[in-house]
Amino acid sequence: MAHVVCEPCFGCKYTDCVVVCPVECFYEGEKVLYIHPDECIDCEACVPECPVEAIFHEDNVPEDWKSWIEKNAEEAPNCEVITEKQEPLADS
Ligand code: SF4
Ligand code: SF4
Hints:
InterPro entries: 4Fe4S_Fe-S-bd, 4Fe4S_Fe_S_CS, 7Fe_ferredoxin, RnfB_subfamily. By secondary structure, the protein is an alpha+beta fold. It has two helices and five strands, in the order E-H-E-E-E-H-E. Helix content is 15%, strand content 15%. A three-stranded antiparallel beta sheet has the order 3-2-5, covered by helices on one side. Strands 1-4 form a two-stranded antiparallel sheet. The chain starts with a strand and ends in an 11-residue tail after the last strand.
């Protein structure tokens, strides 16, 4: 089980989520972050930090965003880990 970053994350200007993760399991895609499902310990610390409510427990991912479960699992291992708050990821 793990938490999953979903579509609202696209173009995030905040990255507040990564600072609170105790196991550093956020990975930086081009315009979105991913959570590595093998590393996330379901502590839920990141959930309230996300201003756009992009993070869900994989059991609670809204129907429209179910594909993000696989996307996080596929993409996270190919991205760099991100542990500090960053400048905006995109100009949106
Ligand atoms: S706080 Fe984190 S999960 Fe939420 S939109 Fe920003 S980068 Fe994505
Ligand atoms: S639920 Fe906890 S361990 Fe999982 S990504 Fe969020 S802060 Fe990290």
